[in-house]
Design goal:
The complex is a heterodimer of chains A (444) and B (304). Chain A is of the alpha/beta class and 444 residues long. Chain A is 66% helix and 6% strand. Chain A has two domains: 302 residues, no CATH class; 99 residues, Periplasmic binding protein-like II (D-Maltodextrin-Binding Protein, domain 2). In chain A, strand 5 and strand 6 form a beta hairpin. The longest helix of chain A has 39 residues. About 7% of the residues of chain A have low confidence. Chain B folds into two domains: 217 residues, P-loop containing nucleotide triphosphate hydrolases (Rossmann fold, 3-Layer(aba) Sandwich), CATH 3.40.50; 64 residues, Alpha-Beta Plaits (2-Layer Sandwich). Chain B has nine helices and 14 strands. In chain B, a hairpin with a 2-residue loop joins strand 12 and strand 13. In chain B, helix 2 crosses helix 3 and helix 2 runs parallel beside helix 4. Classes of the chains: A alpha/beta (444), B alpha/beta (304). Chain A: One of its GO terms (molecular function) is ABC-type transporter activity. Chain A: It is found in: Cell membrane. Chain A: Pfam families: ABC2_membrane_3.
Chain lengths: 444, 304
């Protein structure tokens, strides 16, 4: 047992001390946080930038209805002539002048939007939409429909997606956030299993090609060496994962405060706190910063991130053990990395299939039979389950999938150790799959 | 010290060891000889518990070989390697700890050995920066560091320059004097004669010869002598006394390699020649291990 600890220690330290590990671990959260900060920055700047004050010069006697200020455009009627406004535009608070000339409301002509800058496409679209709306109201009123009836026609549609939780109570949910979190977790899982599985294989090949293997197994059992390596590298993966989470979270907070300033932070946090309390919040009614970021944060808060992270770690360890044992067996059977190709395919395929199906079928139908089976079979369950998780998975399914995975990795570790102990001492022979099966049946 | 009884090891298609029995005495240097592929490495792997025998048993100090004995055996494989990216000191420390030494004790001994073999400033170096010979020194230290009772060296001198080979040889002799038992696996017969007390010759998975080196060489004496004299003598005249294997005459000096016939003695040869020539030397050729090795192996190969 003590020897396994020594091996774990060496495998862990020799990797964690590598420059490439340190750089990757520090750089990735910086990049992620940088993107995150930029997205927030641009969305907030975008929202702010589209608020324009428009002075309306109305020369049309038949338009008795008035344009109402909207979220993005503040209309204000002025009693000045167009010429007077034009000459004084720079000194006023207005960004644009909207000129409504005399026209037949059935065929409006000659409407002008004048500014010191050329009005953007989105602004002119909004203004023309508002005018169309205005003319429609005017016409409807002309045909004798009252204001109250008109108000009654207007309905704001806001879909709140809710699902009934286990306990029968309604929970806030967001399909968008679930998809993003699920997809991200799936991609991460795929990358982690692949990267660290291959590290195990490389480690075994390194020991074989450098021929230290004979010295090693005159001191320790092959099984101890294999497990020590697998566990040591798993700890490297976990270290990297935890550091990424912690660093990304802290750097993101810093980045957000740097980009957005204190007000937005205060707002963000107040929203987040409210959401945690469970009180439903109307989407920041008159706030000028009603950005997609806030909506995103709100729905993120509705997900149980702690549970997702814990389950992710469990399935990472399970899936990693499941696959890395197979990679160790492959590593033991070959003399160099170039020879691994023929064995890599059968091991890569289920992982790739699981990855592709999880990101397409499972995200579209997280409760369907394909999603169910993918999240049960240990070859694909680590990926499929973390993709499904944010949508909500019944506890019994989660437990069953975990159990199958544990049984699965005990199976692959056992299988791999039998191939490994023979393979590591075989030099200079091309190994076929058939031969590996033969090794499997060797006595000690 | 080590008793090997009727070991059989069967791989899928060939039998690597066929009923091999050996006895390695405590404090001796034992040579394990044999051509390539004879089964030496298979036998060593069984002694070091890398693999197990199909049948037969190995006794270590009278006990059946088990995991406890790993810390009492040091093994330097022929195919040797180290972790390329690891620092030398760290690496030897790691290997020593795997053999059960504590960190402080291992560090103390590594410093002692590094000092002794003039490697003191290697501690922080990486293996990939060392030459092959330097790496071998590191491996030798790693092999003997935990003061094993039994040290197994597979081709220990390959890759060493003569100076370093001599240093290592002296270390081996010193360790042996201090009580360590050695098993040598080698093809280099001159080092066998120099170092080994006993040998066993393995060929085609079977042991075909074993015993003390001196006895074996005595046993393979075949009345061959070097004879050198000055003067004229027709060797044909002594045909019933000896057979000439090799002859050469330089500056009036004749050198003969002769085999004295059975029932005849060196004295008879001398008395036959003395009246005719002046004898410079007559000495017996004791077969080298190399000769015996080749003789035994080719003999065996000629058998059906």
């Amino acid at each position: 047992m003590n020897k396994i600890l020594l091996i774990i220690q060496r495998e862990y330290l020799s990797r964690v001390k590598k420059k490439s590990f340190i750089i990757m671990t520090l750089l990735t959260p910086l990049i992620v946080a940088g993107f995150y900060g930029l997205i927030i920055y641009f969305s907030i700047q975008g929202v702010k930038g589209t608020f324009n004050k428009v002075a309306v010069v109305n020369n049309n006697k038949s338009l008795t209805e008035k344009l109402q200020p909207t979220k993005n455009i503040g209309y204000a009627y002025v009693n000045q002539s167009l010429e007077a406004m034009k000459s004084s535009l720079k000194t006023t608070e207005y960004d644009y002048i909207l000129y409504l000339p005399e026209f037949d409301i059935s065929s409006p002509k000659g409407i002008q939007l004048i500014g010191t800058k050329q009005a953007g496409l989105s602004l002119s679209n909004r203004v023309s939409g508002d005018i169309e709306e205005l003319i429609r109201t005017q016409k409807l009123k002309a045909s004798g429909i009252s204001q109250t009836d008109l108000d009654g026609l207007k309905t704001d549609v806001n879909i709140d997606t809710k699902k009934i939780g286990e306990a029968g109570k309604e929970e806030d949910s967001s399909a968008g956030a679930s998809t993003i979190i699920g997809t991200a977790a799936g991609i991460f899982m795929f990358m982690f299993i692949l990267l660290y599985g291959i590290q195990v294989m490389r480690g075994v090949i390194e020991e074989k090609t450098s021929r230290i293997i004979e010295i090693m197994i005159s001191s320790v059992k092959p099984f101890q060496l294999m497990m020590g390596k697998i566990i040591g590298i798993a700890l490297v993966g976990l270290t990297q994962f935890v550091l990424w989470i912690v660093l990304t979270a802290s750097i993101s907070t810093l980045a957000v405060s740097a980009f957005v300033g204190k007000d937005a932070i205060a707002q963000n946090t107040s929203v987040a706190i409210k959401a945690k309390d469970g009180t439903s919040i109307s989407p920041a009614v008159n706030s000028p910063v009603d950005s997609p970021v806030l909506a995103m944060q709100k729905s993120l808060a509705s997900l149980d991130l702690t549970k997702i992270i814990l389950v992710f770690i469990f399935f990472f360890i399970g899936g990693y053990l499941f696959y890395s044992a197979l990679y160790a067996a492959i590593g033991s059977a070959v003399d160099s990395e170039t020879e691994t190709q023929q064995f890599m395919m059968p091991v890569m395929m289920p992982l790739l299939v699981g990855y592709a199906l999880s990101l397409s079928v499972v995200t579209n139908d997280p409760y369907g039979p394909i999603a169910f089976w993918l999240s049960m079979i240990p070859f694909t369950s680590p990926i499929a389950m973390v993709v499904r998780l944010p949508y909500g998975v019944p506890d019994w399914q989660l437990a069953l999938s975990m159990l199958i995975l544990v049984v699965g990795f005990i199976g692959t570790v056992w299988l791999a150790s039998r191939i490994y102990r023979v393979g590591i001492l075989m030099y200079g022979k091309k190994t076929s799959l058939k031969e590996m099966i033969k090794w499997f049946t060797y006595k000690n | 010290m080590l008793t090997i009884k009727n070991i059989v090891k069967q791989y899928a298609t060939h039998r690597a060891l066929d009923d091999v029995s050996l006895q390695v005495e405590k404090g001796k240097i034992f040579g394990l000889l044999g051509p390539n592929g004879a089964g030496k490495t298979s036998l060593i792997r069984i002694i070091t518990q890398i693999t197990g025998p199909d049948s037969g048993e190995v006794l270590f100090n009278g006990e059946r070989l088990n995991v406890e004995h790993i810390s009492q055996i040091g093994y330097l494989p022929e195919e040797r390697g180290l972790y390329k990216k690891m620092e030398i000191g760290e690496q030897v420390l790691y290997l020593a700890k795997l053999k059960g030494l504590s960190t402080t004790e291992a560090t103390r001994r590594i410093r002692f050995w590094f000092e002794k073999l003039e490697m003191a400033d290697w501690w922080k170096k990486k293996v990939e920066d060392l030459s092959k010979g330097m790496q071998q020194k590191v491996q030798f230290v790693a092999t003997v560091l935990h003061q094993p009772e039994l040290i197994i060296l597979d081709e220990p001198f390959s890759g060493f320059d003569p100076v370093n080979a001599d240093i290592i040889k002296n270390e081996i002799l010193e360790l042996n004097k201090a009580g360590a038992t050695f098993i040598f696996s080698t093809h280099r017969m001159e080092s066998v004669e120099e170092l080994c007390d006993n040998i066993a010759l393995i060929h085609r998975s079977k042991k075909i010869l074993d015993g003390p080196v001196k006895e074996i060489r005595e046993q393979y004496r075949n009345n061959t002598f070097w004879l050198e004299y000055e003067g004229d003598y027709n060797v044909e005249n002594s045909n019933q006394l000896f057979e000439v294997l090799q002859a050469e005459t330089v500056n009036g000096k004749t050198q003969l390699k002769i085999r004295i016939r059975e029932e005849q003695t060196a004295n008879q040869v001398l008395s036959a020649l003395l009246p005719h020539v002046s004898i410079n030397r007559l000495d017996e050729v004791i077969p080298t291990m190399n000769d015996i090795f080749i003789q035994k192996v080719t003999q065996q190969d000629q058998k059906p």
